[in-house]
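Explain the record.
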Amino acid sequence: MKRLHLGILACALGLFVAVAPASAGEKIFLTIASGPTGGDWYTMGGTIGELAKTAVPGATVTVTTGGAVGNLSVVDSGKADIGISMASLYNEARTGTGEFQGKPRENVRAMAYLANIFMSFFLVAEESPIRSIEEIRERKIPIRLLTSTKASSPAVAAERMLLEYGIAFDDIVKWGGKVGYVSYAEASNLIKDGHADAWVGPMVSGIVELTTTKKMRMLPI
């Protein structure tokens, strides 16, 4: 049997799959590292998988959950053949900077540009007194903030976006607040039940559903 090692990375979001045809009698296995369940990247990973099956009849395709940082590492190590990530993180992985400081990922290559997805929306409950991100920093508000699973693209984007406002996740904790890395479904339930104050991340279906049952306000970014 032969495992298909593409050694490539489908870099941040259109759609293209290039899979070498199998020789007669050879079995092709393809692993695609996508994103958190319920998100756009997970859906895209499934779509890429279906295209791969069409391109290589009989191929065994597995789509796994993942995150923008981890996907680069699993492709680099050969644990996955294709991964979805962000262009900026791909550059950091190749150069050994940022999230990959001193540990470059040399066995990954950009394969395709897929789409441009807005990663950071800042939502608070309508009854919240918070009107701006600047106010959180100035008043050191102990906000209970949620974002996507750790090392996922929304979590990385949320952290970097807040740093532009002079707010580190550690600052929120120092002010008495909390930062939670959760699934989209968990985020919806926690905010709905009053156990969290804000969501920073994409407007995926689970978060859109939240806004139909609880009034939320979007802060300007």
